[in-house]
């Protein structure tokens, strides 16, 4: 039986636990703070109950799924017998370095260690370790029990077979992995988000529209297509013969815009302050927690709706429409 | 009774007709090509029938809604008695200039002319017209009967009251308007899309991942949140106290990425060719039409699901979750 060790039980580690549990794995949690382990277990129990309504809690009854979860009193105990380690420790390179030196001694032979880091390259905390070729970044989008994307990023010394093994594991638990060929700042997701945020802040700073209007441009416009097609498929379907025609027609326009956007700006205190003020009008500070639970409830419903609609659409080809 | 003239009945004009009709307006269509008028009427009839399943066809029976649609044999006939004109002519400035010179003579007093142009500033085809202060860009995202966002962009001489009037009209027909303060290349939507596409092509050109993996990063990751929150609200909810804290923590990382991304590149023929080849593997040329009908069917279902989920979420506040 496969047994997953989750090291670090904050928001990300807790959600990872849920992902592995509902896929049928045994999961053992460890966090240096005992309270964090207890909180994670409570989170998993509550989230599993919520997900049942969306058919996203896995095939087993909640009690049986929860029964596969255990809390380890020490890192040694968590790692012993693990077949995969998902490290979700705090995002500081000195913490990761120390942790990986310990993991390097403890981890059983051939076991892979994936890091949830959203920004640190694996090379920055695995160089010289005996286990280095079994270490890599396995970066989820928070929370992974609702958002399937996982970025798999090798360090220069990660083994090709390790990349394969983790890809297979991620698919098996229902996540959607992409594999970067090499380390790059921000990986793919945060680079795309960076491009979007850079222009979003630029539009507000230049007084073109409000932050709420930028948000509407995405949530009532671009985001409706990006929800189920990426940027490439979106434009591929927007010209009769596909993306090459689209680029012939609109490439020059985009090239012109790209030049205007090649203007990296720091987000000034006054700009951030203005956006913060606008956001606090929409959602006051004391309403943020409630808004987050609204977000997670909506996200679960949308992900469930997406699965249902895509399955129905795949099951009913409409040749007549073509 | 309000009567909308749609001038230019391609894909965009036809969808606009549907938007106004289902909102209860009378609509008169004109296109210089008689076949285009007939095609538009056929499209409206078919789409209304499809939308009924999603409760997006308006309150009236289909026959009654269709009964408010008429085809004009001439531009004069279309414009006479119109209370608003939505111009959706081909995207070439010389065509727009000539059309607007004619509209300038024909349009009744006080009637506003909104242009569907996705890229031409209104100042480029309305300068010097008697009606210039009543002309502006009212840019939909295609197709407007499924995607509610509308960009309202004034020329330097568009009247403030005209902006107000069109905003009110767009809200009344169920669209979601944003108002730019001034003309800017690409408006808001295509500037945001430009930022996204620029980085998407850069990642593929640099061999970091495939085009399909970029698409997955959005459709299985970022796009799930952007579907119902924009980029600002997304990061606002990703730090305990909101966006200012998020920017304090991650601003330096994004600033570093922005510098790497300040590298405007033309999309080379070989790069576009590689992405085109990858896309044609996923969807062969002969399958594009079928894939477009898949897209529109999915889009309608997702927009309907979004309305339902957001309405339910708003109706069931969960103070206990906060």
From TrEMBL, chains A, B:
Q: Where in the cell is it found?
A: Cytoplasm
Q: Record's superkingdom?
A: Bacteria
Q: Which residues form the 3-hydroxyacyl-CoA dehydrogenase C-terminal domain?
A: 186-279
GO terms, biological process:
fatty acid metabolic process
Task: List, alphabetically, the InterPro entries matched.
Answer: 3-OHacyl-CoA_DH, 3-OHacyl-CoA_DH_CS, 3-OHacyl-CoA_DH_NAD-bd, 3HC_DH_C, 6-PGluconate_DH-like_C_sf, 6PGD_dom2, NAD(P)-bd_dom_sf
Q: Which UniProt keywords apply?
A: Cytoplasm, NAD, Oxidoreductase, Phosphoprotein
Q: Where is this site: Important for catalytic activity?
A: 139
Principal place of residence: cytoplasm
Write one Gene Ontology MF term: L-gulonate 3-dehydrogenase activity
Key word Metal-binding present: no
**EC number(s) recorded for this UniProt protein:** 1.1.1.45
Record flagged with keyword Phosphoprotein: yes
Q: Which family is this protein grouped under?
A: Belongs to the 3-hydroxyacyl-CoA dehydrogenase family.
Listed name of the protein: L-gulonate 3-dehydrogenase
